[in-house]
Amino acid sequence: MSDSGPTGSAVPAGRSRLPERPPLSQPRTTGSRSSRQPALGLLGLLLVVPIAVLLAIGAGGNGSTRLLAPLVTFSLPLVVMIAFWWEDWPGTQLRSSWSGWADTVLIVAGAIALTAVGQTLAGRLDPVALFDPSPGPGHVPTFPATMPLAGLAFVATLEITLVGEGWPFRRLHPLVAGPIVVLIAWAIAITGYLTVVQVEPPAGSDVIARDGPVPGAVLGAVLVLIGAWQVLCFVVWRGWPFATVASRAVRLTIAHVTVIGGGIVSYLVLRQLLELTPSRIAALSGCFIAAGLLIGMLFEGWLSNRAALLVITLTLTAVSAVALQATAGAMHLTHSAADDWVGHATLNALAVSIILHVAIGRRWPFQSISVDSPGARPR
């Protein structure tokens, strides 16, 4: 990646195909670093932090988790499609100051529509419960019933896009390939939700009970851990060590097995050996994902040493986990609700704010500011 965006450069007008491999998966030397960092990342925090706070507590503690977490999670496949497949189209048709905002409006509209689809699968379409964190008996609340579906769709989208290098869809026109990937991810998610997930309806709700072999909370924790491996390998470490393997078949096989297997094994270790609850595992994994995106995306190009990147990411994970748990305690949330809120604050607030600023907004309004020397002015 470069300071200009998640893929290094926007798709030029008229380009009918993307590069064979995503720039994130291209081998590169480890000695390069951006002279614009860390100042560019620090400037980005001026936008990222207020948006993250708004998403985290805009509807209160439990309210933000129950209302905003499903909406934001359902939006993530669209975020990936616009950022990594469409490379910010259709926002690129507008002036830079409007580009990211236009894409964000499109993502919000799509998120509402996809959350409504998820709610229908969970029980029935219920517009009241779609926008009410506590709709009461006789409704279909979207949290937590729809979260396994939303998580499956997002993780599958990232698995195809980054871990699988978009193969073989990168041969197609980007505007065609992106929706195909999202549809495939949704097909995987729906199949898994209807056959694997165990759903226990909240008392008095119209959510449909499902007797799948895997409880929704357990699947959610595993999915977040898989996401953590995706972020570590393909954002923090930029595709290492897989990017150095020449054979595509071998490279993709190793990458998929490592990321998915790593998520499952990590869950077993944290659950069986450390005896952490699924909600606590998801919360800690969310802190790691947010920290990884902060270092690997917002402060992209500042550090190149992989060991240092991992150490800093783990340090930020620990700091954010302690700080957010303390914040949840100040809001007088129960232990399980506190873990749910920490997961929302990291995965659906901070992480998404970083992606929107860097990958969708292309660091507007700071992208043209030179910070190579003291006293620099906009170029």
TrEMBL record:
UniProt keyword terms in alphabetical order: Membrane, Transmembrane, Transmembrane helix
Entry annotated with the keyword Membrane: yes
Polar residues bias: start-end ranges: 26-36
Membrane-crossing residue ranges in chain numbering: 39-61, 67-86, 98-122, 142-163, 175-196, 216-237, 249-269, 281-300, 307-329, 341-360
Segments of this protein annotated with the region Disordered: 1-36
Keyword Transmembrane attributed: yes
Protein name as catalogued: Uncharacterized protein
Gene source species: Kribbella pratensis
Lineage: Bacteria, Bacillati, Actinomycetota, Actinomycetes, Propionibacteriales
